[in-house]
Design brief:
Blueprint: H1 2-17, H2 57-94, E1 101-102, E2 109-110, E3 132-135, E4 140-145, E5 148-151, H3 159-168, E6 178-183, E7 190-193, E8 207-210, E9 217-222, E10 239-240, E11 249-254, E12 257-264, E13 269-272, H4 274-277, E14 286-290, H5 297-300, E15 304-311, E16 325-329, E17 358-364, E18 375-383, H6 385-388, E19 402-407, E20 422-427, E21 430-439, E22 450-454, H7 459-468
Length: about 475
């Protein structure tokens, strides 16, 4: 009861004073009499409660923060993946050959497995244009298969397959074929004959990949009998060439007048310069004489008519870049009728031509009296492109499709010969066509060697044109 009275008294003091009562008040009044007591609620003043300690809150907060961070990282990764996928898709559709091999130009593309499978898939047949080639000085036959060039095992190989391979490179059916064998050294397998010879089936469809060659030898192949000609021990000084010394030399004429030289590479085909062929682009205006070394030669050799004049589409008159052309004869030359006429070998892929190698060039000397010229021969040495392109020579005008060569004997003046004359070199007993003369007049200037087109650079173009027109 005393507590009730005390609480009541404190309450009235709180009301009367208007101030808060502190718990540590020391002066207290006597309790009121019992007659003053009035029932009422007692307002208990208690200190503020201590904060509740929740031992689980930090852990829950850390867990939530981790979840948020992981969510943000996941969203960023997802957006990055979507961005990358978009970039890849854009590149995929902008590059039509992301998933294959381009046919060329705007011709689309094909799968790797469709390249050289014997079926034409590209609009212009690019996928089957260069599937067979000859390699090195041994004429090693190679066929493109599974994204690489492979040798062919001689087991089961026939002469008929050799002729089919030559046709694949653009040579006509009348071309002579010399097949041989060489020891197999490849560690990547070989191609082996899997079917009976069939002239109506592409050679690539008659071969299959094999890890073993039963015969232990691979096929070598010559599509022309081009190993003839003179030996390389002729005098170095320029002089008139004897009859039969350079059987591949041709005289290209318009209206019986000599215009430029050329090189015979098969019974049907002559290589010359583009600027020469464009003198008279009409094939019917041209005639070709073989076996001619002097003005009287045209009286004893028949003229061959020309059915096609094909000039490289990239030829530039100002720079002489891509200065090469080929002519197809209406009827094939007869190599067996005269020993003075024969082809020179096109340089095979992988043929090792070193800079110090000596070579020979031939051309018809321009006569003073306007009569038919004489064939002149001269030994030359190759000049590297750095020396040929220096400021004292051609000052950077020599491109990758050109070669430079200077005369072994100074002052021999083969520069007074015509353009189109072949540049040849003998290796392994075979004469190879290295180039044809495109700037003959330049060698009359000091420090300027003769400039020739690099035939090796144009091999694919030459074989492609031969293949397009082999049955015309």
């Amino acid at each position: 009861m005393t507590n009730v009275v005390l609480a009541t008294n404190l309450y009235h003091q709180y009301i009367d004073s208007g101030v808060c009562l502190s718990h540590d008040t020391t002066e207290r009044k006597q309790p009121p009499g019992r007659f003053e007591l009035k029932p009422q609620y007692v307002h208990h003043l208690a200190p503020n409660p201590l904060p509740e300690i929740n031992y689980h809150s930090p852990k829950r907060k850390d867990f939530k923060q981790s979840c948020v961070k992981m969510t943000v990282v996941a969203v960023i990764c997802l957006l990055s993946l979507l961005l990358l996928a978009g970039i890849l898709l854009a590149y995929y559709f902008s590059s039509p050959c992301m998933h294959g091999v381009q046919c060329g130009g705007n011709g689309g593309c094909v799968w790797d497995s469709q390249w050289c499978d014997g079926v034409v898939d590209c609009p212009e047949g690019q996928d089957e244009a260069h599937c067979v080639r000859l390699h090195g000085s041994s004429f090693l036959l190679q066929v493109y298969n599974t994204n690489k060039w492979m040798s062919v095992c001689s087991h089961g190989w026939t002469a008929q397959m050799g002729r089919a391979s030559c046709r694949d490179m653009g040579y006509s059916g009348s071309t002579s074929v010399l097949s041989g064998q060489s020891e197999a050294h490849s560690q990547d397998g070989v191609l082996i004959v899997t079917a009976e010879p069939n002239p109506d089936v592409p050679i690539v469809q008659q071969l299959a990949l094999s890890n073993h060659c039963p015969s232990g030898t691979v096929v070598t192949l010559q599509c022309t009998d081009c190993a003839g000609g003179v030996n390389s021990s002729r005098p170095a000084k320029a002089q008139q060439a004897p009859l039969g010394a350079w059987p591949w030399q041709a005289s290209l004429r318009v209206a019986s007048s000599h215009r430029c030289g050329g090189a015979i590479i098969s019974p049907f085909w002559i290589i010359t310069t583009a600027h020469c062929a464009l003198m008279t682009p009409s094939a019917g205006d041209w005639s070709v004489y073989a076996g001619v070394v002097d003005p009287l030669g045209v009286l004893f050799n028949p003229a061959s008519s020309v059915s096609h004049v094909i000039v490289h589409e990239g030829f530039d008159r100002d720079t002489h870049k891509n200065d090469i052309a080929i002519m197809r004869l209406s009827t094939p030359l007869n190599f067996t009728a005269s020993s003075n006429i024969g082809p020179v070998c096109l340089p095979n892929v992988g043929l090792n031509i070193s800079d110090p190698l000596n070579a020979w060039t031939t051309g018809y000397g321009v006569p003073v009296n306007g009569d038919s010229p004489y064939l002149v021969e001269a030994q030359v040495s190759f000049v590297d492109s750095v020396g040929c392109n220096n400021s004292m020579a051609y000052n950077g005008r020599i491109s990758d499709d050109m070669l430079c060569a200077t005369e072994a004997e100074t002052g021999s003046h083969t520069c007074r010969t015509d353009s189109g004359g072949p540049l040849v070199s003998q290796m392994g007993g075979v004469w190879w066509l290295i180039g044809d003369n495109i700037w003959p007049q330049s060698c009359s200037e000091s420090n300027k060697p003769g400039v020739y087109s690099n035939v090796t650079y144009f091999l694919d173009w030459i074989h492609n044109q031969m293949k397009k027109h082999q049955d015309d």
